[in-house]
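Per reviewer request, we include the raw input and output of the structure prediction for the construct analysed in the revised manuscript.
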Amino acid sequence: MPHRARPRDLAARPRPATPQRPAARAPRPRWLPALAASLLLLLTQPCGAQEIPGLRANLERTVHELAVGIGPRHQDAPQAYSRAAARITALLSRWGVPHETIPVPGARNTPPIIVAHPGGPPAPPANPPAPGAPPVLDMPPPPAPLILGAHYDTVPGAPGAADNASGVAILLETARLLHSPPRVKAWRGLPLPPPPGAVRVAFFPNEEAPNFMTTASGSVAYAALLAATPAPPGRIVAVDTVGLSPRAAETGILAALFGNGVAVGARGPSGPLARDLAAALADRLPVDTVVTDSGGAWIDRSDHTAFTSHGWQGALLTSPGVALAACVHAPCDTPDILDPRIMEKTVLGLVEFAARAPHARAPAPGP
């Protein structure tokens, strides 16, 4: 009889294990992606960059008002020229920044030099001793001022957004922030506002041809006025045509090579000023610094030149490749060739530069 295989005991057959359901994951907090994005943004920001609410919008608005709302501003367009000066003084008055206006002697159809004092005006000069009285020997000399200057005129036919509504807008915001500094972490410990009379923000008329470096020039008139005072020569930075965008083909080859930055130019005796200025800006922007006694004709083509002949240190703050910028002095000098991010970072650097100037480290006067 053939052997029959015994059927396997089905009951003894091991049952497959029941698959375990994976444990339910805790829901990811909705704020986590936003937090990660914020941390990434902070890590990728340049050192020292700070966001000031409304700063970029203010810069764009002022450039648009001057270049589009007013247009060319020069002696042969006296109404527009006067409107530009009135706009500058109106903003300073709105922000409570002390300022004065100084006429340019003998210049026709010319609005005044406008000088803002973000730390307060300088103290009036002391009365000289009466005849026969002993001289006062312990009177400290007046401080050497720092001037941040920009011209607000244009050549005929040019709206002047870059040259030089950009410089005017940058210095208006610099004066505002120096006068009423916001609570920014990077600025804690800085002497803001600066001491009275230590920093002046000047807006000059008649700096374009044919008035440049003539007696009709605002910077020439103001430099001569200061030379007649007992204050020693100080430092001046001319802010002129800042923020040319390398994305615009009209701004020249060098701007595209250097990228979103600025250029600082000075002659040899003003090298310390140029290096201090570049150091304050370098945390935020690429800075091309040129200090030379030969070549570089672009270095002398702005308002600081009138002061260096009186013994001041002077530097030009401008855009890389400005000498090749096709739209400067042309109808295409409109707001669209400017990068407001460059202008915004320039303001922040100038505020820190002014606060860290040598006057800020001087001991406070006694009672």
